[in-house]
Design brief:
Layout lengths: L19 H7 L5 E2 L4 E6 L3 H18 L4 E4 L3 E6 L9 H18 L2
Antiparallel strand pairs: 1-2, 2-4, 3-4
Helix pairs in contact: 2-3
Length: 110
Amino acid sequence: MSPEVYDPRMGYDPRRKLTDGDVQSLKPEGWWGDDGKLFREFPFATYQAGVDFAVRVAALAEAQNHHPDLHIFYRRVRVNYFTHDAGGVTLRDIEGARAVNALWREVTGA
């Protein structure tokens, strides 16, 4: 196996962490971030709609086996991606953010 391929049994591997420039060029539309974290806030008309979206993001994360932090505010949900064992944002976080955007488009029809 080449050293560039991630194996979760390896533990902390700072080579997987993206640079700030990489994060800026790869982050999906609507997301903010740098080499430390990637995040986006999603607005909702009601508290319950936000909770329902957070539950769907959680199910998506389980399917991907890569789990963001979810913060539910009154009518907003903030999704934070950060790969702890790499010490920052990795390609898995970028992929997760893209999948959350696809879910957002599905939910809102946008």
